[in-house]
Specification:
Elements (H helix, E strand, L loop, with lengths): L2 H28 L9 E3 L5 E3 L2 H15 L5 H16 L8 H19 L3 H21 L5 H16 L4 H20 L6 H15 L5 H17 L5 H6 L2 H8 L35
Helix pairs in contact: 1-2, 1-7, 2-3, 2-7, 2-8, 3-4, 3-8, 4-5, 5-6, 5-8, 5-9, 6-7, 6-8, 7-8
């Protein structure tokens, strides 16, 4: 794929994903499956938290990947499997912790098998998809933090990967960017459904990197996952000025009220702990 076509495909796919995320979130907010209370939590400010952003992100990212121009068939199938499988683990289809752990691993393995390659590559790619899903979830502890990680990771992958990497990350990146303002304003949270889906799809997109680069990335994900068991990511961010600035960029100052929601019920973001606790696994 030429660079020009890859850029055009990336922009088109990101735009489709963003539009789909807004439309799906608006539709879900008007008629929440199971009723509004099913998708609402209360944060430390005493404000309601809408979880509908997660399923909206997942559905939009998967749909955009399925329609993305220029993606090889195997990559497309792997992205769809990773996004749909990881997203399903968090909104009704799979709920218990033990099954969720197994489900993330199986989702990563299925996606890697669909992407193809030598057995070593399948094993590495499976770890990246599963580990990516879990790692993004571990960052989803403050408004906008997980989405910022996804957008930064997408940009780095698009710059470092092959021509097809841009269109591969465009779906999750576009869907995430569309709901970032609502997340930063503490009207929504992406929860497990959104975080798992976005992370798994980025993990699949790393197939455009060389094997040594993927091994290094998997090692880094494993290290961060292990570190999360003994070190608070939030504490590290708070005492590192540059990271704290990035983390606070666009967020509501303490003590301010949430702005009007662009769609759906007004919602906020939990305090030190999320309404949905992430499941830590070693990729």
């Amino acid at each position: 794929m030429s660079r020009g076509r890859a850029v055009a495909g990336t922009v088109l796919t990101a735009g489709l994903a963003a539009a789909a995320a807004r439309a799906i979130y608006a539709a879900l907010s008007r008629r929440p499956p199971g009723g509004t209370t099913t998708w609402t939590r209360t944060n430390h400010r005493g404000e309601p938290v809408s979880l509908l952003a997660g399923p909206a992100l997942a559905a939009a990212a998967v749909a955009a990947a399925a329609a993305a121009p220029g993606l090889p068939g195997r990559t497309r199938a792997a992205l769809v499997a990773a996004g749909a499988g990881a997203g399903a683990l968090a909104h009704g289809e799979v709920t218990t912790g033990a099954v969720k752990l197994a489900g993330i691993g199986v989702t990563g393995l299925v996606a890697a098998a669909l992407a193809g390659g030598a057995p070593a590559d399948v094993a590495i790619n499976a770890g990246l998809a599963a580990g990516g899903a879990n790692l993004v979830n571990l960052f989803d502890l403050r408004p906008g933090r997980a989405i910022k990680v996804v957008l930064a990771g997408s940009a780095l992958l698009a710059a470092a990967g092959t021509g097809g990497t841009g269109p591969a990350v465009a779906g999750p990146a576009g869907a995430a960017a569309a709901l970032l303002p609502d997340d930063l304003a503490e009207r929504v949270m992406i929860g497990d459904a959104g975080a798992n889906c976005l992370g798994a799809m980025l993990g699949v997109a790393t197939a455009g990197l060389s094997r040594p680069a993927r091994v290094a990335l998997l090692t880094g994900i494993a290290g961060l996952t292990a570190a999360s068991e003994v070190v608070s990511f939030t504490a590290v961010i708070e005492r590192t000025p540059a990271l704290r600035w990035l983390d606070m960029l666009g967020r509501r100052p303490p003590g301010t009220a949430a702005g009007p929601a662009s769609a759906g019920p007004r919602a906020g973001q939990p305090g030190p702990d999320r309404a949905e606790a992430p499941t830590a696994i070693a990729p």
